[in-house]
Amino acid sequence: ARCTGTVSTEEALTRQINLLQEHACRIRPVELGRSFGRLEFFVAPGDTELLTSQNDPGIGLKKVVVASDDGEAMEEKVSLLEVG
């Protein structure tokens, strides 16, 4: 996701979470099709794709939280103009 810098990467992803889940379920319908709405997403630091694919334990993954502590959906806090 591209972000203007006014929101964090995690906040930008929560705005597009439905799109990501639908894409994942369409690519892997047998494995993920029934899990739509219950998939968990994690964010890795930039430029760590190779290390992440090799399951390097030194990579710190952060879970993307879809709802905030006050129960409000995170996607409602981020304007679509901020995420491209």
Question: Please, could you describe this protein's structure?
Answer:
This protein has 84 residues and is mainly α. It contains 4 helices and 2 strands, in the order αααβαβ. The chain has helices spanning 9-15, 17-27, 29-32, 49-53; strands spanning 42-43, 62-63. Strands 1-2 form a two-stranded antiparallel ribbon. The longest helix is centred in the N-terminal third of the chain and has 11 residues, at 17-27. The model has no long low-confidence stretch (mean pLDDT 79).
Q: How far is the N terminus from the C terminus? A: 7 Å
What fraction, in percent, of the residue positions are helical?
A: 25-40%
Secondary-structure element pattern, one letter each: HHHEHE
Q: In this structure, how is the largest beta sheet organized?
A: 2 strands, antiparallel
Rounded Rg: 14 Å
Beta strands, count: 2
Spatial order of strands in the largest sheet: 1-2
Q: What fraction of the residues are assigned to beta strands by DSSP?
A: under 5%
